[in-house]
Amino acid sequence: MEPHKPKAAPIQRQLMNVMLLTSGSVLALTCLAFFVYEYFTFRETLKNQLTMLGEIIAANSTAALAFDDPDDAEELLSALRTNRHIVAACLYDKEGRIFARYPADAPADQFPSYLPARNYRFSGSYLEGFQPVVQGRTQLGSLYLKSDMEAMFERFSRYALIAATVVGVMLGLAYLLSRRLQRRISRPILALAQTAGQVSRDHNYSVRATKYQEDEVGLLTDAFNLMLTQIDRQNSEILAMNQQLEERIKARTQELEKTNDELTVVNGKLVKSNRDLEQFANVASHDLQEPLRKIQMFAQLVENSIDDPSLAREYTDKIKNAANRMTTLIKSVLNYSRLSNHSEPFIPIDLNEVIGQIQADFELLITEKNATVTARDLPVIQGIPLQINQLFSNLIGNALKFCDKTPQIVITARVHEPGRSRLPEELTEGRGYAELMVEDNGIGFDTSYSRKIFTIFQRLHTQKEYPGTGIGLALCKRIVENHAGTITVESEVGRGTRFYVYLPMN
Fold first, then answer.
1. How far is the C-alpha of 102 from the C-alpha of 81, rounded, in Å?
2. Would you state the pLDDT for residue 265?
3. What tens digit of pLDDT does each residue of 65-97 get?
4. CA 297 to chain centre
5. 266 near 240, Cβ under 8 Å?
6. Are 181 and 319 in contact (CB under 8 A)?
7. Taking the CA atoms of the chain, what radius of gyration do you get in angstroms?
8. Which has the closest alpha carbon to 277: 340, 231, 330?
9. All structural domains of the chain
10. Rounded-to-integer distance, Cα 317 and Cα 321, Å
11. Are 439 and 496 in contact (CB under 8 A)?
12. Which residues does residue 71 pair with via DSSP β-bridges, in sequence order?
């Protein structure tokens, strides 16, 4: 007879327990690290404050010691009553005798032996130290100060209360979110991927993806359905125009060229729309399915490893990483699709302020990499602030990421007056432009990829080497095109990259 095996909890509950345990452990370790850091930092701060106070009182005590005036010294020390943390103070003469004390009625045996040298140290729950009293090069005596640690204990009590509140709130939030994590993610993404696969396979633009909820996936579904509607409408318009052209071509020869030009423009838009749709369908049916397949696979592995919490935690971490990857990809695709909206007004933008704000946003990464970002006399242009900020944020972010040494980023500008400078051929002649160069000392790339890098979802490195979605530079190109400008690049492997951004001045 086989031994009775205890009934295991449902896999959903086990996953929830693993997530809560992981979240709780991370929060606890974070709080512990913060407390340790604050403990040593605050001790050093208290020591510096007491040292500064000792230097001030020692400097003011020289006259009392020099003229042998204990009353003046007692009055000087009595001013310490305004600092509730100073519990004792004593002024010694140069022979080591007590000259004045605080409190004035404190017994002499409460104070330590005379120490002429400067020395501050922690003793139990107190901080005490000696400060020499010097006039010129002559030491007239020494000052002793003793402070309690109540300020630090009060500070730590407040921190403990805040930490307990944060941990409780975060664990409650993690519990609520984990209950619907798998189903809320997998069902709408799988439906969208199936619809995208059908469109890519059958070229049937009349189908529509089902929208399940109002979130990032819902916005992605709306954008996908809107693109299908535009493609379907454009196809119908092209078919109608072709039919009209065939009926009138013999009788209206003079209008043929004009009609053909219009048809070429519309066909160009259709080709671009089809290309965008194919790229969109590709990421939806492949890139989005990749993390989804990982989620499904590791969820099954977690179910099969119920008796091994360590292995189940490892698989749960992989599920979260795949979900984060999918969220990042969805948000990047949404940002790219939203750039087709030109309804926002153009206003004057000071590029110096834009670069300054981006430096503040990247402050932590710049500090970690010891990077330098230099901007020189940037002009004011007309544009959409959010898009211009995103343009330079992507360029500076790439310069910081794709660098195997200390990053050095230089941003310069020059203004091309109308008709006085040679500009890229795709720009409008007779118009003034600002040429902005973003130069770095990163890893660079082969110049044969100069055009390829601006294609959506195009990457020159593996996800493991340099994480990313492959959409950043495609966003830059679309933003510049939205502003009637252009962007070019020069690079050399191992010797950095230079991006040239041309934007109209007005």
1. 9
2. 60
3. 888 888 888 888 888 888 888 888 898 888 888
4. 30
5. no
6. no
7. 35
8. 231
9. 13-175 (3.30.450.20), 181-338 (3.40.50), 347-504 (3.30.565.10)
10. 6
11. yes
12. none
* Contact call for residues 463 and 327 (beta carbons, < 8 A): no
Q: Which two tokens mark 333? A: 């695709």
Distance in angstroms (rounded) separating the CA atoms of residues 262 and 255: 11
- Residue the block writes with tokens 């943390």: 85
Amino acid occupying residue 189: I
HSE on the CB side for 305, CA within 13 Å?
Answer: 17
The token duo for 113 is: 């032996």
How far is the C-alpha of 419 from the C-alpha of 423, rounded, in Å?
9
| 32-73 per-position pLDDT tens digit | 787 777 777 878 888 888 888 888 888 888 888 888 888 888
How many Å apart are CA 198 and CA 204, to the nearest integer?
Answer: 8
Angle between helix axes 472-482 and 385-401 (nearest 10 degrees) is: 150
Using CA of residue 119, residue 123, residue 127, residue 133, what is the dihedral sign? negative
User: Are 195 and 189 contacting, i.e. CB atoms less than 8 angstroms apart?
Assistant: no
Q: Which two tokens stand for residue 229?
A: 């509607």
Distance CA 127, CA 138 (A): 27
Q: Which single residue is written with the structure tokens 């009788």?
A: 251
Among the listed residues 397, 480, 402, the one whose alpha carbon sits nearest the alpha carbon of residue 435: 480
Return the amino acid letter for 454.
Answer: F
| Cα separation, 429 vs 420, whole angstroms | 10
∠ CA(110), CA(115), CA(118), 5° rounding? 115
Interatomic CA distance for residues 431 and 504, integer angstroms: 7
